[in-house]
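User: Show me a protein chain along with its predicted structure.
Assistant: Here is one chain, sequence first, then structure tokens.
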Amino acid sequence: MKAITRNKWFLLLLGVLMLANVGLLLSFFVFGEKSGHPSGGPSKGPERSYLARELTLNAEQEKKFQQSKEQFFEEMKPLWESIRESKDSFYRNVNNPSISDAEIRLHTARIAELSQEADQKTLRHFQVLRDYCTPEQRQKFDTLVPRMLSTTGSRRGKK
């Protein structure tokens, strides 16, 4: 009789935990935050971007920023994919003890070349955005962007 009572409590507790898990999953996937793009790309919502808020951009400037941002992401997507593929190809050699130093240099040179291209395009993108700013906004832009980019880079290494 004691085992039956214990099993009932166990089943009740199991049922409560299952309902809690279902509720948690629903909160994430159905009722979760809709703003922002999960892949880090441009957001499609009415929420203003960080730069738009910090620089107090007017509607026209904000529209130009958004258009430039979308164009930038479209242009960069294949490049980022190419960098990812090059790194994947490089690290697939981890179990290849016979890979030569020359092959390693070839892989790393290709990755460096693609990364250099991405960095150059990113700099040009921010120069275009800076041109949309007023002289007062440019002063703030010149301090925000380097800080923003260094924060992004420092978060990559953290877990």
